[in-house]
Amino acid sequence: MSNKVLKIIIFAVAILDCLLALVFSFGFDNDKKEQYVQVRTVEAQTPEMVDGLLAATPENLSAWIESNSETLDKANKELKDAQMQKDIFFTFLSELKRITNEEELAAYKADFPKHSASLFAKSDKKDDFINGFNNVNNQKDLENYIHKLENEYAVVKQDFLAERNYLKSANSLVSTATNIESNASANKKATDLTALQSDLSSFRKSTTLQNVFIIIAYCLAIVTVLLLLAFALIKIVKNFRSSYKILLVLALMAVIVLIGYAVGSSTLTPVALKYNTSVTEFKMVNAACFTFYVVFFAAILAILVTSIMNAIKNRN
Length: 316
Prior knowledge:
- This protein is mainly α.
- The chain is built from eleven helices and no strands.
């Protein structure tokens, strides 16, 4: 009886989760997907910018535009400098990777004092690069130094991409507001501003609903995994000789996780970039999501098949 109640509870939670996903999917305007992503990106870093636009009126909209334009102009200039630093870093790292033997290393070291003067002329890490390479004496040292630089460059690149993505979204939002401000008709300006603010409010509601869906999905995943482990341990303890079936299921779970990791995308999303998530960590998240979906739908399928089979047996 307890097993039947447990199945009903799991099935009910699964249906609720699916309904929330459907509500979010059908309630969201796909034509505004790009704008939704941009607003979420801005709100994640500078929520006060979105709050100010929501509170803006046709009379003070120009003040909001001017204030944020000044801030973004400064940030855009800083981004250009960051790109230059990243490009210098990338050029140096690429040159080192092209060194394949001791002879090429000796030739590069001989020319390094002169070459580094021009290569690092505008680099903020000039001394670090020069001192670091001067400690390279052989191919093994070079390999270790390249590995160290690769880890450092990955952080620099992620920070740059995250800031570039934010500024692209913020500039787009300011541009939208500027287009509204440029309307010659006061009625048109007020109507367009109201429509934009309505979209911003709608995006926030969609984000809230999405977060609820994600929380429930994670809770369901955790409960499902815990139940699987609990039933597996109980089965193993009660009947150790036939526990190989349980072990096979666990092995299958491990295979599913590996498949999820292998097929997971290496391209970081804007959110992953914002939180400085490494490629490895991002692929692990992909693996977890893939495993959850497989287990989730397998559990629903198992419940449906079991219910149908029991119904057929009882009817006979």
